[in-house]
Amino acid sequence: MENSKYVVFEILGVKKDDRQNSFVFDKDAECIINNDKYISKIQVSSDISKAIFYLHDSLEISENNVLEIVNYLSLYLGNIMIALLKNSLKYSSVLLNPTIRILELHLLENEVRLNDYIRITDSLVCCSKFDNGNEILRQWIEDVKISDYTIKKDKYDILFLLLQGGNIVQKYMAMYAYLMCLVKEIYSSQRESQKQVVKYISDNCSRVGINLSLSLCTRLGAKPNEKEDQFTALRNKIAHPANINANVNMSENAINQLASIICCAIEDISS
Predict the structure, then answer these.
(1) DSSP readout, 113-182?
(2) What is the 3-state secondary structure (H, E, C) of the chain?
(3) Please, is 150 exposed, middle or buried when counting C-beta atoms within 10 Å of its C-beta (0-12, 13-18, 19+)?
(4) Is 65 helix (H, G, I), strand (E, B) or coil?
(5) Degrees to nearest 5, angle at CA 7 with 138 and 10
(6) What is the pLDDT of residue 257?
(7) What pLDDT, in 10s, does the model give residues 154-163?
(8) Rounded Cα distance, 200 and 204, in Å
């Protein structure tokens, strides 16, 4: 280790085994951090399973400020996980349900190894390899907004908790319901409405690189010319199936893209 002061986090829910789709970097990704009070550099392992925060060698650390530093780094990595979700179009076939764990502290004279979890709470298998890991990591880091994340952490925690669900269809329905709740708050509406969700998705999906696809609305009671986006259409197909015995084709792509839009919605809620 090049710096004497560093903290190691384990990232769970991104790295996959050989039975699930995955994405990796061709080598460990690094990013120098400028003008941060604690961090000098961040390194993320090539398989997205570990993050190391190198701190300034000049930083004075005592038992009185260790907790403050660790909490700050946890928030910072939480922000990076949000950015990972928002930019998931590049690796949309990978089912993402991030959880982070503090693994090692190398801040004081005595090194500490921890095992505490922090909840930021199948088909042909392929592995995509990216040769621009440093650039992707920098993009994640550029999205970091510690103050905004801290204020809205409870809302982000709900999203990460929903992503831990085991049943992919139930997970999607719960996430759509959460988005509807967020959109209601954004528009200061009296009640939740699919129309508002369609409007929000139509206006904002381009922020995360998602192409909008509108079709005639399948919701019960919809007007003949009413349209719905692809996420609402899938939600209604599940809730109101024409054939109750038909299988719903649910993909990791739908989950990740919906998570990206939920991140945008949380951003748009007034503090």
Answers:
(1) EEEEEE--------EEEES-HHHHHHHHHHT--HHHHHHTHHHHHHHHHHHT-S-HHHHHHHHHHHHHHH
(2) CCCCCEEEEEEECCCCCCCCCEEEECCCEEEECCCCCCEEEEEECCCCCEEEEEECCCCCCCCCCHHHHHHHHHHHHHHHHHHHHHCHHHHCCCCCCCEEEEEEEECCCCCEEEEEEECCCCCCCCEEEECCHHHHHHHHHHCCCHHHHHHCHHHHHHHHHHHCCCCHHHHHHHHHHHHHHHHHHHCCCCCCCHHHHHHHHHHHHHHHCCCCCCEECCCCCCCCCCEECHHHHHHHHHHCCCCCCCCCCCCHHHHHHHHHHHHHHHHHCCC
(3) middle
(4) coil
(5) 75
(6) 95
(7) 999 999 999 9
(8) 6
Please give the model's pTM, rounded to 2 decimal places: 0.81
Beta-bridge partner residues of 120: none
Residue 125 has a pLDDT of 54
pLDDT at 2: 59
CA distance 32 to 200: 36
Interatomic CA distance for residues 252 and 189, integer angstroms: 31
Judge contact between 22 and 100, C-beta under 8 A: no
- Show the tokens assigned to 98: 């991030």
